[in-house]
Amino acid sequence: MKISLLYRKLRKGYKPKTPFLNFLLFSCVLKKTCIVAHFLFVIAIAPVFAGEGNVIPGNNESKEADASLEKTEQQQLFDSYSACTYLDLNEYDLNYEVFKTALKGYFRLKGQEKLENDSIITIVDFTKSSNDKRLFIIDLNNKQVLHKTYVAHGMKTGQEFAKTFSNEENSHQSSLGFYTTDITYHGRRGYSLKLDGQEGSFNTNARKRGVVVHGAEYVSEQFIKENIRLGRSQGCPAVPLEENKKIIGHIKDKSCFFIYYPDRKYLKYSRYINNDNYLNYVSEAY
Q1: Residues 6+ apart with CB under 8 A from 59
Q2: 91/81 Cα distance (integer angstroms)
Q3: Which residue, 164, 171, 175, is CA-closest to 197?
Q4: DSSP string of 78-105?
Q5: Phi, psi of 232 (to 5 degrees)
Q6: Where residue 246 falls among pLDDT bands split at 50, 70, 90?
């Protein structure tokens, strides 16, 4: 269930199935201390993993049970953090599941010490029409959306909607997945920001292909009015020319940059969203 839908149901009197889940969700909605709600929830479910009666498990069984409980606690903490942060952002044009997926890669990159500007995450949602504002820059520390705007996809990725993606040179297609931002420079597209792809066959040719954040005149409401859809790039996530400098200022110097689309191959093989190592670093968010 999407959090935005859940929120509307809660306002209409929807009751979660357990009192502990009820407390957790209402604490998020009311913007109470999420960490308190989480630990009360964990305390409530802990007996389920503690075994039956006076049966004393062996060492191996005990270790497995402890590891299972720890993983469950970490997952609950991640779910609590995701839900509460999303509600605090108050930005329902950003799909909750996309946001939650982005956080998985963000925490893994942070755990790998690849982020320096680590309070910032940029999410590009290519499930949306190019005529919609589908780039979101989020300050996770202060739980606010810093910027929301238009962003182009590659000319061979689709017309109004993005459909196909590639990591190959000269494909003129967008590449999915997690990136880290790097240094700025002035090139033939003006003030630009270099991107480093982090995901194997999905986006690691970003540097070689010259995939960067830059401003473009074809990324504007005026272009949409005159051409029915937003303009397209050669694979770069191009942004409005007049907003370019501000956007780059927010996200430069090793922040997390995520381009999302529910591509079957990506969803199946991305090591950033199909590996639960990110759970090891969620507690730091608190």
Answers
A1: none
A2: 16
A3: 175
A4: HHHHHHHHHHHHT-TTS-HHHHHHHHHH
A5: -120, 155
A6: very high
Report, in angstroms and rounded to the nearest whole number, the Rg of the chain calculated over CA atoms: 21
What SS3 state is found at 56?
coil
Structure tokens at 286: 């608190």
Phi, psi of 275 (to 5 degrees): -130, 130
pLDDT class for 285, splitting at 50, 70, 90?
low
Over the chain, what is the mean pLDDT? 85
Q: What is the largest CA-CA distance in the chain?
A: 75
Contact present, 56 and 18 (Cβ < 8 Å) = no
Q: Where are the alpha helices (DSSP H) in the chain?
A: 3-11, 19-29, 34-45, 59-89, 96-111, 200-203, 206-209, 221-227, 244-251, 264-269
Between strands 256-260 and 120-125, the pairing is parallel
Edge-to-edge strand ranges of the sheet holding 256-260: 144-149, 135-139, 120-125, 256-260, 177-187, 190-197, 212-216, 239-240
CB 274 within 8 A of CB 268: yes
Residues ≥6 apart with Cβ < 8 Å to 254? 114, 115, 116, 117, 118, 180, 181, 182
Average pLDDT over residues 262-269: 97
Best CA proximity match to 277, nearest among 125, 118, 107: 107
Number of Cβ atoms within 10 Å of the Cβ of 71: 13
Cross-strand pairs, 187: 190
pLDDT recorded at residue 68: 75
Mean pLDDT across the stretch 213-220? 98
- What pLDDT, on a 0 to 100 scale, did the predictor assign at position 58? 61
Give how far Cα 126 sits from Cα of 25, 49, 110, Å. Answer: 29, 40, 24
Q: What pTM was computed for the model?
A: 0.80
